[in-house]
Structure formats: C-alpha cells, structure tokens
Design a protein that fits this description.
Elements (H helix, E strand, L loop, with lengths): L3 E4 L2 E3 L5 E7 L10 E6 L6 E6 L5 E3 L7 E6 L4 E6 L8 E7 L10 E2 L3 E5 L2
Parallel strand pairs: 2-11
Antiparallel strand pairs: 1-3, 3-8, 4-5, 4-9, 5-6, 7-8, 9-10, 9-11
C-alpha cells in the first residue's frame, strides 16, 4: 500500500506563493511512477492541476499553466507544486496522486490532501 503525505498548504493573500510537497512511501521505485496534483474546491469536482511522468516531463492544465510548476526529487521520493500569483479561485484542497505506472493516466493512490486558502 502506498502512503502519500502532503504538506505546505495554508492561508495566503492574492498574488502570493506557496510550495506544496508530497512524500511517497514507495522508496527507491518512486522514480518509476508518474505523479500528479489535483484539487477540489467546495461544491466542485476534483480536477487535475498538473502531472509529471517518470521521465520528468510535466503536463499542465489550464488552471496551472503559466503560474504553477510541478517538479520531483526522486532521491527524496517527493513531488512538488510551486504555485505563484495565487488567486482566490485557487482556494481548494490539493491532493497528491501517484499513478499506477510511468505515465499520467489512470487513478493510482491518493494522499489525504492539504488545504490552500487564498484570501485577503
């Protein structure tokens, strides 16, 4: 069973930045898996934010493109989401997702989530 633990969420003002981290329990084989960040705002469905495959190629959805950066440190079994120029509409619970394989497809395993609130 995979355990994922997110951190880095919090309350920030519009225009500020946050960096989310997610550590996976899988150990040395972490580098074999694609990793993703999703988010779910109150009353809305969970949506994909960004994904990075095992070859470290990132893919972004429209909500992230130009403001967010996904990266990974395979030696630390960690995936990051750097979020800049945050807006109130970025307020959501952000979930780390480890895919079942090397590519950004399918479900996989989920972390418990970390709350991000953007408010003045």
């Amino acid at each position: 069973q995979v355990y994922l633990v997110e951190s880095g969420g919090g309350l920030v003002q519009p225009g500020e930045s946050l960096r989310l981290s997610c550590v996976s329990s899988v150990g040395n084989i972490f580098r074999m898996y694609a990793m993703a960040w999703y988010r779910q705002a109150p009353g809305k469905q969970r949506e994909l934010v960004a994904c990075i495959n095992s070859g470290e190629r990132p893919d972004y959805t429209n909500v992230a493109r130009g403001r967010f950066t996904i990266s990974r440190d395979n030696n630390a079994n960690t995936v990051y989401l750097q979020m800049n120029s945050l807006k109130p509409e970025d307020t959501a619970v952000y979930y780390c997702n480890q895919k079942s394989g090397s590519y950004c497809v399918g479900e996989g395993s989920w972390g418990p989530g970390t709350q991000v609130t953007v408010s003045s």
